[in-house]
Amino acid sequence: MKKIHPEDFRIVNAITLSKIPTASTIEADDDEKKEELLKIQQKLSKRQDKMYAHNRHAVLICLQGMDTSGKDGIIREVFKEFNTRGVVVHSFKTPNSSELEHDYLWRHYIALPEKGKFGVFNRTYYENVLVTRVHPEYLLFENLPGIEKVEDITPKFWTDRMEQINNFEKHLSQNGTLVLKFYLHISKEEQRKRLLKRLENPDDNWKFSTGDLKEREHWEEYIHYYEEAINNTSKEHAPWFVIPADDKQMARCIVAKIIWEEMQKLTDIAQPELDPKVKDNIDVYKEELSK
Q1: Cβ contact 58:117 at 8 Å
Q2: Inter-residue contact 46 to 9 (CB < 8 Å)
Q3: Which among 26, 94, 138, 149 is most buried, taking Cβ atoms within 10 Å?
Q4: Per-residue pLDDT averaged across 233-255, rounded?
Q5: What DSSP string describes 84-145?
């Protein structure tokens, strides 16, 4: 299998999503992809154990993408070998009444991973510059000062909100959290096939929502706003990676590889040293336990 280079997917300059392929150019058969993913899963698991013991860093994985882009599969497969104590997944739905009594970042802030752990956000605070831009009427539920009607929402509002997100992520980075953001890039045709498959498979019927079809009508709008969000918020301290996601297995391999490579930049992670007093008396303790 051809080597995966994370830099091929990192966004460092302005992009146009329509010009980025949704199908990977890395050639590999299913067995090769499974073998590659398993190797990375095991390495990530060991690295996470060491990070847990070190207790200085956290990792936040942000997953965004159109419906059926493969977010659940990424979570299930990439973190398969992890000790369950080391990874916490949050799936953010429409904010409830309690959450709407706070600012839009609040519910995400209280879900951030502890030191030593991975946090995975299945949909993120970016919904607040994506869904609410396609459906600006949703903002009225936030009871924001100066916004009484949709016409009160200015372009500056969205610019400010993206700057707030940048500041939020910079704060996380400066306090020990590695922030990695993945946009799972699928084609509209691939989404159509996956939605149809849900309807044809009785075991997957429950996943289908008529809302998925309604949101498909706004495909071009979503792509435009994704572009704008990615271009304005892909920073050195919190990069975006655009992952070709028409091939689910390859997308999982790419995401896993990127996480692994980015974790290598946390060069201070090390197994804690045993307390000197305990270390000097190991033989005494062993003898005591052997009796």
Answers
A1: yes
A2: no
A3: 26
A4: 97
A5: GGGEEEEE--S--TTGGGS-TTHHHHTTPPPTT-EEEEES-GGGGGTHHHHSGGGGGGG--T
